[in-house]
Amino acid sequence: MEKDSKIYIAGHTGMVGSSIVRQLELEGYSNLVRRTSQELDLTSQQAVSAFFQEEKPEFVFLAAAKVGGIEANNTYRAQFLYENLMIQNNVIHQSYVHGVKKLMFLASSCIYPKLSPQPIKESYLLSGKLESTNEPYAIAKIAGVKLCENYNCQYGCNFISVMPTNLYGPNDNYDLETAHVLPALLRKFHEAKIQFDRTGQSEPVELWGTGAPLREFLHVDDLAKACFYLMKTYQGNTSVNIGTGQDISIKELAETIRKIVGFKGKLIWNEDKPDGTPRKLLDVSLVHSLGWKHQIELLEGIAEVYKNKFKNQDA
Length: 315
Ligand SMILES: NC(=O)c1ccc[n+]([C@@H]2O[C@H](COP(=O)([O-])OP(=O)(O)OC[C@H]3O[C@@H](n4cnc5c(N)ncnc54)[C@H](OP(=O)(O)O)[C@@H]3O)[C@@H](O)[C@H]2O)c1
Description:
The model has no long low-confidence stretch (mean pLDDT 95). It is built from ten helices and 13 strands. The chain folds into two domains: 7-169 and 216-244 and 284-290, NAD(P)-binding Rossmann-like Domain (Rossmann fold); 181-213 and 247-278 and 297-309, Alpha-Beta Complex (UDP-galactose 4-epimerase, domain 1), CATH 3.90.25.10. By secondary structure, the protein is α/β, with parallel strands linked by helices. It has helices spanning 15-26, 45-55, 70-75, 77-97, 135-155, 181-199, 220-233, 250-261, 285-290, 298-309, and strands at 7-10, 32-33, 59-62, 102-106, 159-164, 166-168, 205-208, 214-215, 217-219, 240-242, 248-249, 267-270, 279-280. It is 43% helix and 14% strand. It is globular, with a radius of gyration of 20 Å. The longest helix is centred in the first third of the chain and has 21 residues, at 77-97. It starts with 6 loop residues before the first strand and ends in a 6-residue tail after the last helix. The chain binds NADP nicotinamide-adenine-dinucleotide phosphate. NADP nicotinamide-adenine-dinucleotide phosphate is lined by residues 11, 13-17, 36-37, 40-43, 63-67, 83, 87, 106, 108, 164, 166-167, 173, 180.
């Protein structure tokens, strides 16, 4: 990838795509191609074919997808399967047809089997049953990984894929109906703090489950650095795990966020609600051996996100 290479970032308005754009610009890449979903609906085969014909990008980061938390995944099951399959099929196939030199597909750690041994190695993909709430999303993403692998095998393409863990950072989704756990906690605590500061009291913040499950979180700017690094240095059919290799309980995460936000009211755990998978931690030895390691520690990352997103704002 040269400084003047033409690079298409599919999904550049999203949390991951926008971070990849910032990273590329920081590294001096300026020949970047971007389209919003309004300008180019990636589920349309015809539109994507015309776009590749016109733009002929040399490199592609495929970070466009229908993404959401448990609730959204479970409610919009057909859309998660259909839209993600269509987006991937179109972008990956047209990248092959138009001779893209290299493509990176953004998969996700939620596509590993529900009861994977921990930490999760790349080789555990397709070794067991999926979590039912996000099965449609996972099936689509697995198809994307397999498309890359098999276009490499049959057509000699250079398409790679990565498996990021749970992400947080600038441009995250704070809509409580569709958000992932970390941004949802930030918003809930922030809104409760505003109420507490104004009135001296607030409704308790209610969180689901026992808080016992263990999860891993990576700042999206660290992910973008990894994507850039692997795009330049890695070639192969193994979809590379990207994470910190460290996990934290949801209870500890909630307490950390409560402290960062400065909420002094009550926090209750609704233990009638399900906990979900007890632990989800990636084995990151492959990406470490390839020469990348995360730099932003969780406390520092969350504090920065909170400051930039919420501080001095009334939610
Ligand atoms: N967020 C996480 O924690 C996480 C963790 C692991 C992996 N990932 C992976 O990273 C990738 C990006 O996730 P994200 O968190 O950045 O998602 P996001 O913030 O929701 O962004 C999604 C992007 O996809 C675009 N998009 C969606 N449907 C489209 C369509 N039909 N046509 C064109 N563009 C479309 C959106 O464009 P518009 O804004 O223009 O509509 C937006 O730019 C996904 O593949 C996801 O699986 C995310």
